[in-house]
Design brief:
alpha+beta; Aminopeptidase; Alpha-Beta Plaits; 2 domains; 6-stranded mixed beta sheet; 14 helices; 18 strands
Amino acid sequence: MAEQLERWRDKIRKQLSQERQAAIALLQEWVQEPSVQGDERSIQEKVAKQLAAMGLKVDLWVMEGAELINHPYFVSPRTTFANSPNVVGVWSGTGGGRSLILNGHVDVVPAGDEQQWQHHPFSGSVIDGKLYGRGATDMKGGNLASLLAIQTLQALGVRLKGDVIYESVVEEESGGAGTLATILRGYRADAALVPEPTNLKIFPKQQGSMWFRLSIKGRSAHGGTRYQGVSAIEKSMQVLQAINRLEKQRNERISDPLYATLPIPIPINVGVIEGGKWPSSVADLVKMEGRMGVAPGEEMEHAKAEMEQALKQLAEQDDWFRDHPVELEWFGARWVPGAVEEDHPLMQMLQESYQQVMGNAPVIEASPWGTDGGLLTRLANTPAIVFGPGVTQVAHYPNEYIELDAVFQCAEIFALTMMKWCGVAEEGAIEQ
């Protein structure tokens, strides 16, 4: 069996090498598409065309309807998606094998200040083995690795027993409405791989997160007699301290060794503070917005309740908060936490494939951020493992890039894993 696996690896590697330049050109084409939220149609039509050329059964549709919009897991700043279709391609197996979803998103965050980029944000420039551009690492490089894995097995004449479902979705950056729509459309599998940028580390667990907004009240007064007012800015400092205490308490409970390398496994981050209207007036209102991490296996309602309780306890320290409680609102984006057991068969196969390709054991950690994998695991009963090329540290940053070698290494690992997980119906082309 070991010799057979080596032959598979060698043939897959050779085939990927032969297609390397064409694959890089395709990734350049994808990155050159500025597929920010609300403008994904062009790239999705190209993905659909590519999948159709590969012989997959293609489904391109615009998500809509009350079932989606009213679903408890639906989160999005919009309710119409006319220019943001989803694409799914199914590579049908011969039967009798396990199915696998390869899930990735094409929506990218805005480029930001172009002056901070050395090259145009959507250039797709290739320099010293790296391809630059917004979305290169988050996560079009991972999407390409998934596609190349299918394409390579097809070129080698491999037929799998189980179906492989390639999902190219929108709305991940806003909380996962695109993947939710695929689930509601009936796409489910025995397991899933999500090639977000993990730097080829394996993440069987991923934290969730949700956005919150706080309104902290004060009482206005003239700045010259500020002692006659109550500064909402000063009260907000107490609120920040309460949030820091809550963060510390929540993280002290986490003993999972997969979080050992993370200084704060499930952070609570305050990213926006707005307060006051006039320099010579005491501020009577401060608004804060932030992101609360949710541990794998934790119910999001439990995390909400802990935040609510921490804010209520402010009244025990300061009478002002008894009559003027902090108002808490949950709004905007939300990512569902997810976890796959470390002894899950797909975990074992993915580790084995990694070892074959890279020559060493993989690093296994918990994800410091959320992905659509949580929805697949929790809602679709499709255990999802996050593993892909790209470095998290450059996602959403100026001069975002992906190392091309990592894309092809990931494709090789995925191809081997697909054969093991889905089962091989025809091996003749590989054993020649």
